[in-house]
Amino acid sequence: MDGTVRKDIKIGDRVMVVQKQDQRTGKLTEGVVQRILTNSPNHPRGIKVMLEGGIVGRVQGGMDRK
């Protein structure tokens, strides 16, 4: 699972995201999906989500059901 397909991501999933300011370094942040922000069915750089706590980033993988 690489986080580029919207239908694979559900509210409540635990995921690893890269925030905009961390794209150059690739630093990942772990959290639980609160909202899915990308409307298209897929995105080559990862589906954009908002995590619980308000962090926004693109899913890079590490998905688990909560």
UniProtKB/TrEMBL annotation:
This is YwbE family protein. NCBIfam families: YwbE family protein (TIGR03833). It comes from Lacrimispora amygdalina. InterPro entries: DUF2196 (IPR019240).
